[in-house]
Fold this protein.
Amino acid sequence: MSCRVRDLDPTADRGAVERLCRAALAPAWALAADAADLVRQGVVAEADGAVAGVVAIDPAGSIPLLVVDPGRQRHGIGTALLAEAMGRLRAAGASKVHLGSGGDGYLWPGVPADLPAAVRFFERHGWTWDHTVVDLTADLRGYAAPAGVGERIAAAGARLAVAGADDMAGAVDFERRHFPQWSRFFEATDESVLVARDARGQVAGTLLFSGPGRRSALWPMLGEDMATIGCVGVAEPARRAGIGAALVVRASELLRDAGAGTCHIGWVWLAAFYERLGYRRWREYLMANQATG
């Protein structure tokens, strides 16, 4: 089957991208319609005058999404889109390309392990998996703090508070010094920020939390009263004092009291840490990088 590739028009092609995501990803991934809005740059493939596939491109060096109409799969369309994306990223100066992630918003950090056809597609094209990360969830209705969390932070002399306007400069400065990869999320956020201060009053840890509501493209899967927690970070000198656990537990309690149902924590390496706080593994992702040369 021959196809023609062209630049994505995020406005004109939005409906086609939405249709492709629904056809190719459901029922495993029943995403919100506005998931299509996360695809801002990329390439579409047309066959017989219709959009048959799309690949999203993040010029920083990632391929956040690649989907092909199920009725037109195994005809070289996905291969053509992947080759086009790799070529454009190479021309943009990227030396290595990551599958998933991309830009300020993302659907998933890597390739979902529960999409076996996608996993096999990338394996056939020479991609190998470096590691896995997971998403976790917890039903916050009736959530209770695990024993000992409050006592540990009290013994450390630390205290927690939701950041007000006067606290944001300190929170952003903390991110820039300790977690620069997250600083942009704190600089321009509509989420709440929870701050931990040590016994001297210095910022020792932070996280973002939001909800309840349609807080991500995952809301059809997690409920309209979903919530999110993310960017949980504690400065190295303050670790092993229970501050990270206290941040997650306090954010969970605040979201519970606000009426949240399922809380989602994405892109997690240290799953056991969150599992001790009442969260359970929800989805797994395979992570891969490939050189463009």
Notes: The first helix runs from residue 14 to 25. DSSP finds nine helices and 14 strands in the chain. The radius of gyration is 21 Å. The mean pLDDT is 95.
